[in-house]
Design brief:
Layout: H1 7-10, H2 23-34, E1 41-45, H3 52-64, H4 79-85, E2 92-96, H5 103-113, E3 123-128, H6 135-146, E4 152-158, H7 166-169, E5 173-176, H8 182-195, E6 199-200, H9 202-211, H10 216-230, E7 233-234, H11 236-243, H12 248-260, H13 263-275, H14 280-297, H15 300-303, H16 310-322, H17 325-342, H18 348-370, E8 396-397, E9 400-401, H19 438-447, H20 467-483, H21 487-495, E10 499-500, E11 505-510, H22 513-534, E12 540-545, H23 557-567, H24 570-578
Parallel strand pairs: 1-4, 1-5, 2-3, 3-4, 6-7, 11-12
Antiparallel strand pairs: 8-9, 10-11
This protein binds zinc ion.
């Protein structure tokens, strides 16, 4: 074990071309070297572990190399390159501003800058986490940065560009490093595994890449940690056990059960998940992610958003063919509702179970609608009442209302007209009257009586009305809710001018997300009032948080946390260690 070198160090890139996932940056730097048009000072910004320091060191090495290749890479053979590679070069000076941020630290560095290098052409000063420098240290440094000697180059690196003062920004050539793509990371891990003689499953590497959130260095540390448990064998199963990740296999099974409306299977699967120590909230969010992946897999143009290994991608493709879009969107909506209600629910398990049953019931209806003749009724399962044809589901996604496409028999992807706002009634679980899930759906009906009502589309009112009339009625809504004692809601509704759009859609601007959350709860009441007053059941209400109004005042806990993090980035580490959720 004594000669164990961590992979992040052992496989640190030594040429520009070996840097993963920052092609545009390395290409720009190489071009500048070729043309001998290198800036004096650089600012490398971007998340941690994406290659900023590696890139700075390679740049330092390359501009001091005696035999730079035509491709603007260091030769790695000359005296200068060798001393760089052995970390013994006198030409590079690194300062970690996170721990050396005083005026004295920076003065020491500034004093050195005057001296020309004894070997090589340039002295390179790399200041990591430069945003941590104290104000005085910044000032002490500024003068040097303004008039540096020709033999000195500065490379400043930071994870927090917004904290760098404009006077520094304006003196540097700025490079924004991106998070490294999952596929790039997993390919690189594959390379490392191969070099180390480790037998690694592609899915396992993919999972590690996914977990490391675009940071190559983190992915390599995680890789090392997992390898140390696993004796040169890295399996998908081993990784999900060690990282405590819920196996995606569960989500595929759950979705299959939805499509068959197999409530027993759903409840058993969920029970198994809980038994394995996962919580319901984690599960429901994972399910939403899975359904989103299926949605993405439905169309060629969005398939690239699905960053998965090949084998997994094929599975998603296959399942996406079995899922109608008219199932996926309401299902996602239900997952979202469950997510929102989770923290405040007294019976969390029941909440998730009910959501699963609710989603399952859409799956069944859709399957019926999609191909009524070929649909195979599962054993012990009577066919659903045909009257479901008349029932639909309200779907909202951001500010679009999406309708269940009643004629969608050969659906292939998201079509434009699906996003046209149209009115629809709610899913009726009582449509399952004849199925064996009757008792559960009846219970569900009781719990959600307000939400679930059967509506015959032919009886819907559709009286035309003017924008002026709508505005007048809107004032009545405000008076009505205030009269009910909901003063806050009344104020919120009157805060910005509402607007009547096409198809009886009313746009309601809001100033922040907590107002939007309040609206979710009160929306049914408001809609009922509007629809009755204006005699139009097609009225929809769409809320929109106004960008410009997203002021710096932190409203939600999440915003507050983000603000606190700005002041002390270590809070995030603490949050991760304690497993806290800033949402609530
Ligand atoms: Zn060289």
């Amino acid at each position: 074990m004594s000669d164990f070198i961590v992979s992040a160090r052992k496989y640190r890139p030594s040429t520009f071309d070996a840097i993963i996932g920052q092609f545009s940056i390395t290409a720009t730097l190489k071009n500048a070297i070729k043309r001998n048009q290198l800036a004096q000072s650089f600012l490398f910004c971007g998340p941690r572990g994406v290659g900023k320091t590696s890139c700075a060191r390679i740049l330092a090495k390359t501009i001091n190399c005696e035999k730079v290749s035509e491709n603007a890479e260091a030769c790695n053979e000359c005296v200068s390159c060798k001393s760089f590679n052995e970390n013994s070069s006198f030409n590079v000076h690194e300062l970690d501003a996170a721990s050396n941020n005083s005026v004295d630290d920076i003065r020491k560095l500034v004093d050195q800058v005057r001296f020309a290098p004894q070997v090589g052409v340039y002295n390179i000063y790399i200041i990591d986490e430069v945003h941590m420098l104290s104000a005085q240290a910044f000032n002490a440094f500024l003068k040097t940065l303004e008039e540096p000697p020709k033999h000195a180059k500065f490379i400043l690196a930071t994870t927090e560009k917004h904290k760098i003062i404009p006077t520094i920004l304006s003196r540097c050539q700025i490079f924004d490093f991106k998070r490294v793509g999952i596929t790039d990371i997993s390919n690189h891990l594959g390379f490392v595994a191969k070099s180390e003689g480790i037998n690694a499953e592609q899915e396992a590497l993919h999972l590690i890449a996914q977990k490391s959130d675009g940071a190559m260095r983190d992915s390599l540390s995680l890789f090392d940690r997992l390898v140390s448990f696993s004796e040169k064998e890295l399996t998908y199963k081993g990784v999900i056990e060690h990282l405590n990740i819920l196996d995606y296999d569960y989500y595929f099974k759950v979705t299959d059960a939805f499509l068959k409306n197999d409530i027993n299977a759903l409840l058993n699967l969920f029970n198994e998940i809980l038994d394995n120590g996962f919580d319901g909230h984690h599960f429901i969010n994972g399910l939403a992610e899975h359904l989103r992946n299926i949605l993405v897999a439905k169309d060629e143009s969005t398939l690239k958003l699905l960053e998965k290994g090949d084998a997994l991608q094929q599975r998603y493709l296959k399942q996406s063919k079995a899922c109608a879009i008219t199932f996926l969107i309401p299902a996602l909506n239900l997952c979202n509702e469950c997510d929102v209600q989770y923290k405040t629910s007294n019976n969390k398990r029941l909440l998730v179970e009910l959501s699963l049953m609710q989603i399952s019931s859409i799956g069944h209806q859709m399957a019926e609608k999609k191909s009524p003749k070929s649909f195979v009724v599962p054993e012990n399962h009577e066919k659903v009442d045909v009257s479901v044809e008349t029932t639909n589901k309200i779907v909202e996604k951001e500010d679009k209302t999406i309708e269940n496409h009643k004629k969608s028999e050969n659906f292939t992807g998201i079509e434009k007209e699906d996003f046209a706002p149209k009115p629809i009634s709610r899913i009726s679980l009582s449509a399952n009257k004849k199925s064996k899930t009757i008792s559960i759906s009846a219970a569900f009906d009781r719990l959600n009586q307000k939400k679930e009502e059967e509506i015959d589309i032919s009886k819907l009112r559709k009286t035309d009305f003017s924008a002026a009339k709508m505005l007048k009625t809107w004032k009545e809504v405000i008076a009505f809710v205030k009269q009910k004692g909901k003063t806050n809601l009344g104020i919120t509704l009157g805060m910005f001018p509402v607007e009547l759009k096409e198809n009886f859609v009313i746009d309601l601007p809001l100033s922040n997300s907590s107002q939007a959350e309040m609206l979710i709860e009160e929306k049914d009441m408001i809609l009922e009032f509007l629809r009755n007053k204006l005699e139009n059941d097609y009225i929809e209400l769409i809320t929109k948080v106004i960008e410009a109004e997203k002021s710096n005042i932190p409203y939600t806990n999440k915003d507050k946390f983000a603000k606190m993090m700005d002041e002390n980035p270590h809070l995030e580490t603490l949050r991760l260690k304690l497993g806290l959720d800033p949402d609530y």
